[in-house]
Amino acid sequence: MRVVWIILFVVVGFSGCGKKEQAAPVVTTPTFYKGADVGWLTQMESAGIKFYNSSGTAQDLLQILKDKGINSIRLRAWVHPTDGWNNTTDVVNKARRAKDLGMKIMIDFHYADSWADPGKQPKPKAWESLSVDALTTMVYTYTKGVMDTLKLNGITPDWVQVGNETNDGMLWETGRASASMKTFSALVNAGYKAVKEVSSTSQVIVHISNGYDNSLFRWMFDGLTANATNFDIIGMSLYPSYASGGASNWSTVNTQCLTNMNDMVSRYKKPVMVVEVGMPANQPDMAKAFLQDIIAKTKSVTGGQGLGVFYWEPECYNNWQGYGLGAFDDTGKPSVAMDAFLD
Predict the structure, then answer these.
(1) Domain range for 157
(2) Does residue 87 fall inside a structural domain?
(3) In 31-131, which residue ranges form alpha helices assigned H by DSSP?
């Protein structure tokens, strides 16, 4: 009887005195992606360009960017560039460096041998004579080949753009959207299929420029939706310098962009991402204000559906390649503009 009593005492004592309060639920904040497109990195290094941290010490560019709050890297992919830069081997080399620093990776397929943008979407030379069906197959084959090569090198892109600033489609004239949205849709679907076959977790982006232009975005994504196009994220560029009023009108441009982002989320049920921004390198204080504002506005998008903001080639300085919208000063150090990415 005494033994039974002791056991009962222990059980009751444990259940009463040892009761623990329920732990408060853990609240996690979704990651906001602060990125930089550094497609010129290896070319600049090959030309002897050096990069310096804010203290003036020479350092690897990606580490400098990471220390400024950048957590994601965007890389353009060209099919057969004449000088080799941005071909598959070069993309893999840069992606590996970013991965080694724990950064997320976005691959931006231009489907061209050089630049593709709103004013030009040239076919790769080797693809020029292909029929519509053959071109669609080639988009699939090439995309899958690059994705497979990345995977073999231990790299799984977090995001993949099927086309760059495709305001009127890509692979002109065959894939010009204003001539045949159906054909452009088929090309996007071919790229989407290739990406997902290699990595089901990689998110596919359709990217057009002028993020402040709601009518352009509605035209494009109404057309793609009507043609059963597969994509996961709506990507946009935002360069106040090219908008009405110029760079100094950035506040109005940002407000218009936020309105557009919220409309995209509401209308198409897709998250949005600002995959390119840039401001005059010689106006760093204004650039910082612009960046702080567009980052805050993107974070405020309805339902947390504004995923991130990427600066396009911030490392450019001394007017590299004639580009004046970088965010490094003339000594090769990040300007105050880059402080906008710090938490």
Answers:
(1) 29-341
(2) yes
(3) 41-46, 61-67, 88-100
Locate all alpha helices (DSSP H) within 74-131, ordered by sequence.
88-100
Active site residues: 165, 276
* Locus of tokens 């002028």: 210
Helix (H, G, I), strand (E, B) or coil at 26: coil
Look at residue 77 and tell me if it is in a domain.
yes
174-to-78, 128, 129, 131, 292 alpha-carbon distances in Å: 19, 10, 10, 8, 40
pLDDT of residue 25: 56
So what's the pLDDT on residue 134? 98
How does residue 26 score in pLDDT terms, banded at 50, 70 and 90?
A: low
Does residue 23 fall inside a structural domain?
no
Cis amide bond preceding 315, omega within 30: no
Residues of the chain above pLDDT 70, percent: 92
| Number of domains present in the structure of the chain | 1
Q: Note the pLDDT tens digit of each residue in 165-191.
A: 999 999 999 999 999 999 999 999 999
Residues in the chain: 343
**CATH number for position 336:** 3.20.20.80
Q: Cβ distance 256 to 249 under 8 Å?
A: no
Angstrom distances, CA of residue 269 to CA of 27, 225, 232: 24, 11, 10
Mean pLDDT value of segment 112-137: 98
* Residue 6 located in a structural domain: no
Beta-bridge partner residues of 167: 169
Predicted model pTM? 0.91
Tell me how far apart the alpha carbons of residues 168 and 119 are, in angstroms, rounded to a whole number.
9
CA 262 to chain centre: 18
